[in-house]
Write a structure and sequence with these properties.
Blueprint: H1 11-14, H2 26-34, E1 48-51, E2 56-58, H3 59-67, E3 88-90, E4 94-95, E5 119-120, E6 134-137, E7 143-145, H4 146-151, E8 169-171, H5 176-217, H6 221-241, H7 246-263, H8 275-278
Antiparallel strand pairs: 1-2, 1-3, 4-5, 6-7, 6-8
Length: 305
C-alpha cells in the first residue's frame, strides 16, 4: 500500500531514528527567571523579595505560602528552604526609565522588546534582564550589577550608605554551582545562630540557678529576728514558770510585753519630740481620764462623756 503515483520515500520516513533533544529558548528562560515569580509564576510586582539562594518572589505569594503550607503548589520545591519572613529580604530596586510596561503595546501593533528590563543598576545603568550578573546585599537589600561592585570596590552601599561585607553579597538567579555555594553558606549561618541561641539559654539557666542557690543559703533577716525574739520569750517564760503556778502566767505576759516594748520605744519617752507633738497621741497625760470621768458603759468611742 502506498508509494503509488511515483512517490519515492526517504530513509528518515521509513526508519525511525533517535529523538532530537528539545532545546529551551534562552530568551524565554531568562524572562521566566527575571520577570516572573519563582513560586506563583506571576509577573513580578512590588514589593519583590529574594531568598538566600538568590531567587525572586512576590512578597504576597511568600506570605500566602507561609500562612498555608499544606496547599498544593506547582513550585513548592523552590520555597522548601524558606521557614519564615526572616529567611527573605525585600529588595531595594531602581526603576528603568525606558520601561513603559504593558501600557505601551495595548493594541498589539508595536514592537515589544523582550530584553528590556524593569529595573537597572543605579551605578552602571545596566538593565536587569538576565544578560548581566546582578547581586543584592543582605544588610540593606539594595541591588547592583556585578560589574559595579567590581569596578567600585567599597565596603559601603552605593545607594543607601550602609556598611556591608563580602559575605553579605548574594548573586541573583545564579548557576547551579553558585546556588550550591549559597546553600552551604545558608546552612552554616543557620548552625551558627543555633549555637548562639543555645549558649544564651545555657547562660540564662546558670544565672537563674545561682540566684536560687543564694536565696536558699541566705535566709531573710526578718525571720532571724523573729526567731530570736521567740526564743527569748520562751526562755523568760520557762524561768518564771519554775517559781509559782498562778504568778507564772502574769509574769510571762509581763516579760513578753517588756521584751516587745524594749524593741519599740514609746513616743512619750522621746526627748527630741516637743510636748505639743506628744499631746497629739492618747498616751499623753492630758488624754488620760480618771475613774469619775469615765463612763459605766461601752461605746464606740473610748472617751465618751
Amino acid at each position: 500500500m502506498g508509494c503509488d503515483g511515483g512517490t519515492i520515500p526517504k530513509r528518515h520516513e521509513l526508519v525511525k531514528g533517535p529523538k532530537k533533544v528539545e532545546k529551551v529558548d534562552k530568551n524565554a528562560e531568562l524572562a521566566a527567571k527575571w520577570k516572573y515569580c519563582a513560586l506563583s509564576q506571576e509577573k513580578l510586582r512590588r514589593p519583590i523579595v529574594a531568598c538566600d539562594l538568590g531567587r525572586l518572589y512576590n512578597k504576597d505569594a511568600i506570605i500566602e505560602y507561609l500562612l498555608d503550607k499544606t496547599a498544593e503548589r506547582p513550585n513548592a520545591e523552590a520555597v522548601a528552604h524558606i521557614r519564615g519572613i526572616k529567611d527573605i529580604k525585600e529588595l531595594n530596586l531602581t526603576d528603568n526609565p525606558e520601561w513603559e510596561g504593558e501600557r505601551r503595546n495595548t493594541k498589539g501593533d508595536r514592537y515589544e522588546d523582550i530584553h528590556c528590563g524593569m529595573f537597572i543598576c543605579p551605578v552602571v545603568g545596566l538593565e536587569m534582564n538576565g544578560k548581566h550578573r546582578f547581586c543584592y546585599l543582605q544588610t540593606c537589600g539594595c541591588v547592583f550589577s556585578d560589574r559595579a561592585l567590581k569596578e567600585v570596590k567599597t565596603e559601603i552601599c552605593h545607594k543607601c550608605g550602609d556598611a556591608f561585607k563580602v559575605e553579605d553579597i548574594v548573586v541573583l538567579n545564579g548557576t547551579k554551582e553558585e546556588v550550591e555555594k549559597l546553600r552551604e553558606k545558608m546552612e552554616e549561618r543557620r548552625t551558627k545562630t543555633k549555637t548562639k541561641k543555645s549558649k544564651k539559654s545555657k547562660a540564662a539557666e546558670t544565672v537563674s540557678t545561682a540566684s536560687e542557690s543564694k536565696d536558699t543559703t541566705q535566709p531573710p533577716e526578718v525571720d532571724v529576728a523573729r526567731s530570736s525574739l521567740q526564743n527569748g520569750g520562751e526562755s523568760s517564760q520557762s524561768a518564771v514558770a519554775g517559781s509559782s503556778g498562778s504568778s507564772s502566767s502574769s509574769k510571762g505576759t509581763k516579760s513578753s510585753t517588756s521584751s516587745a516594748t524594749a524593741t519599740k520605744r514609746s513616743i512619750q519617752e522621746m526627748t527630741e519630740k516637743s510636748e505639743a507633738f506628744k499631746s497629739l497621741f492618747t498616751t499623753h497625760s492630758s488624754a488620760k481620764r480618771t475613774k469619775d470621768q469615765t463612763s459605766n458603759w461601752v461605746t464606740h468611742t473610748p472617751y465618751h462623756f
